[in-house]
Specification:
- This protein is an alpha/beta fold.
- The protein is built from two helices and eleven strands; from the N terminus they run ββαβββββββββα.
- The strands form three sheets. It has a five-stranded mixed β-sheet with strand order 3-5-7-10-11, with helices on one face.
Length: 153
């Protein structure tokens, strides 16, 4: 049998005995690093010339859709979409562009994120919904996760 992958985050599920003598690479690259990406990874992309469809490169490989924090940048002058997979996932969106962005699934309405605003969104089973909203004082993604967690107490 070969390594299988989880359906939501694409993490490796090695079969007993399959990786004898070679498990370190699979654990480090297809479990540990990808878990870190899902918890604290950052994807940044300019939306100046069009919408941003998050990459989904498949199981066991790094991709934008797995990242925890999305930072659209640029000066589009008009609203742009961030198109994410329509499945269970939460994102912190830090909109550093000069226009609103909408985080949405391919066939959903999504949530609008105003320019200069940071929000937490989550998939509710049928669309992305707003969870939290913050303004420019929380633009540092290094401290944002801690601040959001502290505010929940």
């Amino acid at each position: 049998m070969t390594t299988a992958y989880t359906s939501l985050l694409g993490l490796a599920l090695p079969v007993t005995g399959e990786l004898s003598g070679t498990w370190g690479t699979t654990v480090n690259d297809s479990i540990t690093q990808l878990t870190e990406d899902a918890i604290a990874g950052v994807a940044t992309q300019s939306v100046a010339s069009g919408d941003w469809t998050l990459t989904t490169t498949g199981s066991g490989a790094s991709n934008q859709a797995r990242m925890a924090i999305l930072i659209p940048t640029g000066s589009p002058g008009v609203s742009r979409n961030i198109i994410a997979p329509s499945k269970s996932k939460a994102y912190i969106v830090i909109n550093q562009s000069n226009a609103a962005v909408v985080i949405k699934g391919a066939a959903t309405t999504g949530v609008s994120v105003a320019a200069g605003t940071t929000i937490l969104v989550a998939w509710n089973g049928s669309d992305f919904v707003r969870s939290e909203e913050h303004t420019s004082e929380l633009q540092s993604h290094l401290n944002l996760v801690c601040r959001l967690l502290l505010e929940k107490k």
